[in-house]
Amino acid sequence: MSMHGSSLEAKLVILGSQGVGKTSLVMRYVQNTFSPHSASTIGASFLTQRMQVFGVIRRGYVDDCRVVLQIWDTAGQERFRSMAPMYYRGANAAILVYDITSEQSFQDISSWVEELQRNTGDIDIHVVGSKLDLAEKSREVPQERAQAYVRNTLGSLHDVHEVSAKDATGVDELFHDVTRSLVERTYEIERTRRERQAGDVQLRDGRQEASDQACCNV
């Protein structure tokens, strides 16, 4: 993740089982289109989206940040699973997608969470339930159970997102939340680094002052 003034470039990877709607989710967000017969992704596809996040607190004042998202949409077929580290390596955030009409796809989320936490360090993870438009007739994964899993696994401040690529429900809000989280995390890292550098300067100055006093007292 690279920061240039009030501009941020970040890598976002989309992961999940085959058929959960990862590509449909990305295409709805980037191109505002939906195809019920989209082909399965082979390996991964790459898209770029630019957006602006408003009203983030930075250095004591409110800042707006221009963001370039590098979105990697990965294949869900098992035969491509071994290739996943090649795509999520270096990612700043991950969207893990399950299908709310498929219990198995939700069970698969835990293995993705464990793999990312084991191999990527401090990655920003978001869990998303797709196909919300089918909830009334075909839901297998209650939102409350998914929410409990997310908070127990990722922390009490995390929420599960439920979206529909078909009718666009929640899609823009999801990507906005992910992007804002990336910006806020970046600003926090920046603030921590500045404070550490300031502390190092004070420590060096203190040591120099003590050294000077010792010399003068000889």
Automatic annotation (TrEMBL):
Keywords: Nucleotide-binding. The keyword Isomerase does not apply. This is Ras-related protein rab-5C-like protein. It holds the Pfam family Ras. InterPro entries: P-loop_NTPase, Small_GTP-bd, Small_GTPase. Residues 195-210 have a biased composition (Basic and acidic residues). PROSITE patterns: ARF (PS51417), RAB (PS51419), RAS (PS51421), RHO (PS51420). Signal peptide: none annotated. The keyword Lipid metabolism does not apply. Residues 195-218 are annotated as: Disordered. One of its GO terms (molecular function) is GTP binding.
